Amino acid sequence: DKHGQSHFDNSIVADSKRRHVRLNIVNATREGTARPVHRPMVVVNEYKSGVFEMDSSRVFVDFYFLQKTLEMEAFERSGEDGELLRDDKGDPIIEPARCNEIVIRAAEGVELDDLFDAVLNCSRDFYLRHPDLPDTFGLATWQQRHETIINAVKNEKGLITFLFVVIGLVAFVMVATTFYNIVLEKTRDIGVLRALGASRSGVASVFLGYGLAIGIVGSLLGFAAAVAVVTHLNEIQFWMANHLGESVFYVACGLIGALLGCAAGVILARFSKGHAFWIGWCTPVMLLVSIVIACIVLWQYADIRSWLNSNIQFVMWDPRIYLFDRIPDKVSYDEAAWIMLGAILSSVIGALIPAIVAARVDPIEALRYE
Q1: Pairwise CA distance, residues 139 & 230, whole Å
Q2: Which residue did the predictor score with more confidence, 203 or 153?
Q3: Better-predicted residue by pLDDT, 1 or 268
Q4: Concatenated DSSP letters for 109-144?
Q5: Rounded CA gap, 63 and 95, in Å?
Q6: Concatenated DSSP letters for 12-41?
Q7: Percent helix, strand, coil in the chain (nearest 5)?
Q8: Is the pTM of this model over 0.85?
Q9: What's the mean pLDDT in 324-339?
């Protein structure tokens, strides 16, 4: 990896076959002094967890190799005079091997809480069998370790839910005002229907049906657009971070070409009678020509394309801030269903008040309505 933790300094030298790494470890010796240790190593594989903080700051080496290099393996305890300390039986006192942290991964299908309880019970049994050892054991799940970030995400999710509620209220008001205006414009038609024998509930059902149709169609279209965007968020992010500059260049050239074509069409139209003909042909032709020229320029001059993409870009997801290197692109269909149901209810409830107003229209007064 290019980066290291506070006690790692990795310098990578690439050759034609493999990558060599010099692993520099600052070792705290048993005497309490710091001693740098250098170990040449070879990169044999790559690992990506998806967590930016971990992938950018850690390398994996053999556990026992690192334990020995850091002098954390088992050793025989000695006194201040250098002689080995022995127990009552005359055997050397051996300090057990140590490590700072052990990461345990659950098997497929095992719940995180079950794994936590199993490891906790094992640790308790271990300390019951070794009461002389200091209890320095700490246990935490990945959710507890990243509790701050998870709580921040939950708060953001709650804020988005609140915004959805506000949007639902706005939809309710818009549907209500729109349908109320329709009732005012169609008052005479409503009077005709009532005079022909339409019931109050029948008139109200027309407007409620319209509200329900608007809610269903709008929810389905919104859901389809949301799924299409959310499932391609990382592709959109990649395009905006790497190809936005050249895309803006194409659009700008197209607009300039369209304006030049429109201007040329106006000028040619002054000398002929076919105003619409010249403007209608010059504008798309110049638009196409300008885009072709833009493509040729960017294909021939890679430096221009590189400069555009490096200076005109938008990165909406910084992994250094959001911890993960990819944008979450999973759709929660259960939550989406509840949101769609809320949108449909907002449309129906918004149409309810105008429907009641329409149902209460007096047919005699409605026929005289102008």
Answers
A1: 36
A2: 203
A3: 268
A4: T--HHHHHHHHHHHHHHHHHH-TTS--------HHH
A5: 18
A6: EEE-SS-EEEEEEEEEE-TTS-EEEEEEEE
A7: 60, 10, 30
A8: no
A9: 84
